[in-house]
Design a protein that fits this description.
InterPro entries: K_trans_C (IPR053952). Keywords: Symport, Transport. The protein is an alpha+beta fold. It has 2 helices and 2 strands. It is elongated and about 50 Å long.
Length: 58
């Protein structure tokens, strides 16, 4: 029996009203550069399923 692994991933688009000029780019950069969960956990790519959502910050 071969186990399957499920991971979630979010993608942020747009911009947030009311954030100052430094907070938004910093947040988006940190989110974009976050480590891949499958790589961190050393999961096999042929048995890993990644599902995600796109979140509009606007």
């Amino acid at each position: 029996m071969r186990p399957r692994y499920f991971l979630s991933r979010t993608e942020l688009v747009g911009h947030r009203q009311g954030w100052n000029a430094l907070r938004e780019p910093l947040f988006l950069t940190m989110h974009h550069n976050a480590a891949d969960g499958a790589a961190v956990l050393h999961l096999p790519t042929d048995r890993t399923i990644v599902m995600g959502a796109r979140i509009d910050l606007g």
